[in-house]
Write a structure and sequence with these properties.
GO molecular function: hydrolase activity; metal ion binding
Family: Belongs to the ADP-ribosylglycohydrolase family.
Helix content: 40-55%
Structural class: mainly alpha
Protein name: ADP-ribosylglycohydrolase
Strand content: under 5%
Number of helices: 20
Radius of gyration: 21 Å
Largest sheet: none
CATH superfamily of the largest domain: ADP-ribosylation/Crystallin J1
Shape: globular
Distance between the termini: 14 Å
CATH topology of the largest domain: ADP-ribosylglycohydrolase fold
Number of strands: 0
Number of domains: 2
InterPro entries: ADP-ribosylglycohydrolase (IPR050792), Ribosyl_crysJ1 (IPR005502), Ribosyl_crysJ1_sf (IPR036705)
Organism: Halogeometricum borinquense (strain ATCC 700274 / DSM 11551 / JCM 10706 / KCTC 4070 / PR3)
Bound molecules: magnesium ion
CATH class of the largest domain: Mainly Alpha
């Protein structure tokens, strides 16, 4: 039986999130008093003090994190609009400040999917073959490699979504369960699976535990044949769940990688990507440097030396496009960190050819984090100022209900749930089941 296509069309971006929250907020007061703030809770309570306007019936830190994040987002949007309208906040607001962690987190997932879908039909082609056959690829198109409809995402996005489901179901990363999810996914006969992943999943099917399967593959295939980008491509949701704990984020990144890819360039490669994304979520302007500084001492020198050169000591002409994890990371980080727009980064990464879907997807996570999804200024009278072109978003074959105002906020909370002593809520379990259903698991 052919695999069930996990995604259906039907996103409608004329209806942006929060449409039920568009009653105007009071804008009097010295808004700079709201800044800086350490948490959404602090922002909302300070705003309440400043304006005397109650945003939450009972603002309690644990009671409704969703309410808090939505209301904080609303304050920031109002703040931004006021800043551009009549300067009432009394200082210039850098556009970057208005991009919230929520918006950046949504951007990570959307960027990953957009890069994957744009690159899918030209995967395996060289840049000159792409140029000769298609000119510059800027639109999703059908057929091509893997012979799928336009906008179809591949293993990169699907396995990242399984990771999202894993985090939501358990409130933390559960490696044993993720290994089972990989097996379930593989048994649904997906059209795009990497060779290293196949090998490790076969070990898992034979009863080898999650912590050993990737090592068995590394042993049997050898270091030259087991250091692909198959774990880096799917690992970004961990950065959304653990943005504030570099140690935990690294540990979980390595753990998620070694299920299939145990080569240290892969395990620590996932850590570098996720530390970079987390640094962007936290507003760093030098995110790769932050990541390399935080990287554990036993990370391979080859990885560190290669990525230390990005972007300044790397020439665009020298960028490689293979599925080797260091080639993929270098190229994706180069475009992701240097491009002036999300679209430019993804288009450049994809048209560089080779493992185009994965390099596009990884570059997409970085620009998604840098620029956010772009919905921060949306109100009834403002069209969404989307980071990703509408021609992509409208054709993306990824339809997860309410991911922008439900799943991603939950994911932002997921890594902190256990820490805060809150058991996995039924709300999260419910959404997780829905997500798993939509991503093709029976
Ligand atoms: Mg792929």
């Amino acid at each position: 039986m052919p695999p069930e296509n996990p995604f259906t069309k039907g996103n409608n971006y004329d209806h942006a999130p929060y449409s039920d929250l568009d009653k105007p907020l009071p804008t009097e007061g010295h808004f700079y008093e709201l800044h800086p703030f350490k948490s959404d809770y602090e922002l909302v309570t300070r705003y309440t003090d400043l304006t005397g306007f109650d945003l939450l019936e009972t603002p309690s830190e644990h009671q409704s994190s969703r309410q808090l994040s939505l209301q904080a987002e609303r304050i920031r949007r109002t703040w931004g609009l006021e800043a551009t309208a009549d300067n009432t906040i009394g200082r210039d607001v850098d556009d970057q400040e208005l991009i919230t962690r929520l918006d950046r987190s949504i951007g990570i997932i959307l960027g990953l999917a957009c890069g994957d879908a744009l690159g899918r039909p030209v995967e395996f082609m060289s840049s000159s073959e792409i140029e000769a056959e298609h000119g510059t690829v800027t639109k999703f198109f059908g057929d091509g490699s893997h012979n799928q409809p336009a906008g179809t995402v591949t293993d990169d996005t699907n396995l990242a979504l399984y990771l999202v489901a894993n985090l939501l179901a358990h409130g933390e990363f559960n490696a044993a369960r993720y290994a089972e999810q990989l097996v379930e996914w593989f048994e649904s006969d997906p059209f795009d699976v990497g060779v290293t992943t196949i090998s490790s999943i076969t070990w898992l099917q034979n009863g080898v535990p999650a912590s050993e399967a990737g090592h068995k593959t590394l042993e049997s295939r050898g270091a030259n044949n087991a250091a692909g980008n198959g774990s880096v491509m799917r690992c970004a949701p961990l950065a959304i769940a653990y943005p504030d704990d570099q140690q935990m984020l690294q540990e979980m990144s390595r753990k998620s990688s070694e299920i299939t890819h145990a080569d240290p360039r892969c395990t620590h490669g996932c850590a570098v990507l996720n530390l970079t994304l987390a640094a962007i979520l936290n507003g760093s302007e030098e995110p790769l440097q932050v990541a390399l500084t935080a990287l554990s001492d036993d990370a391979p020198a080859e990885l560190v030396e290669r990525l230390e050169r990005v972007p300044d000591e790397v020439s665009e002409d020298d960028l490689e496009n293979s599925g080797f994890v260091l080639d993929t990371l270098e190229t994706a980080l180069y475009y992701g960190l240097t491009a002036d727009s999300a679209e430019d980064a993804i288009v450049s990464a994809v048209n560089n050819g080779g493992d185009a879907d994965t390099i596009g997807a990884v570059a997409g996570t970085i620009v998604g984090a840098r620029f956010g999804a772009g919905w921060r200024l949306y109100r009834v009278d403002h069209k969404p100022d989307s980071t990703f072109p509408a021609r992509w978003l409208n054709d993306l074959r990824m339809d997860i209900d309410s991911y922008e105002d439900y799943i991603i906020p939950d994911l932002l909370e997921a890594g902190q749930l256990t820490e805060r002593g809150i058991k996995t809520g039924s709300k999260i379990a419910r959404q997780s089941r829905k997500l798993a259903r939509n991503s093709g698991r029976a």
